[in-house]
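[Meeting: bench + compute handoff]

Bench side (C.D.) handed over the final construct sequence. Compute side (W.E.) agreed to return the predicted structure before the next meeting so the bench team could plan truncations. Sequence as handed over:
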Amino acid sequence: MSGTLDVKFFTIAFIIYIAAFAFFLVRSGSQRNSFGWAGVWALGIGAVAQLIAFFVRWNLAGHIPLSSMHSYASIMSWMASVSLAVLVARTRRFDLGTFIAPLIIAIMAIASLLPTQIHQQLVPALQSYWLHIHVSMAALSEGAFAVSCGLSIYYLIKQRRSGVDPAELTRIDMLNHRAISIGYPLFTLGALFAGAIWAYDAWGSFWSWDPKEVGSLIIWLFYTGYLHARYQRGWRGRRAAILAIIGFAMVILSFLGNLFLGGQHSYENLG
């Protein structure tokens, strides 16, 4: 990674998120809520550092920095960290931090390994406001899916323990559903509809069977199936949690596919 100011703030955020995870771990062992609140504050401070990195990068590039996988992963992790901070603060379930924070750190780690070059000039296809809508909404939606995945892991672990209050499991299941209910419309509007309109504006076609387009469609169909199974088939609890984990695994595979499958969404060719 280069040593530009935006990368330095990104690194600071990365370190702070690791500290937040450590606070949540200590809280789980000691049951002292002060450590849990320290984790919440650390998440908030890390999110602010990420915002600073984003705006510094914007200033250095001269345009909104949404044309690289590094920026995309950073936005995804930012959404997950803000969602986790709000979720823990409102529910007082500090144990959630020990399951969701590692996902945030993992996404940040992936982002840190990706090229961080700042492109001063975008290729013509990217000089569109649809880029802002498409990329930002897709990344934010996948951040919500990351939170859902962490909640699902938490649910499955809690379910295996003896003496767990069924009402507590129901509350976790509802939080999981709420996270997906936030991510799904963002993904639908951003990844699919805005993406199709941008594709038509840039390449003259709403759909070109690009690997990334196909991946996004599969993800959307999967989460549509999740909601159908929940509302029409009554899938809740364990089955819903397993589906949410599979869904986020598909998100990560689609994201990493950009590195290997190429196509019109290959960030190496976007400028």
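W.E. noted at the follow-up: The longest helix spans residues 166-203. C.D. will use this when planning the next construct.
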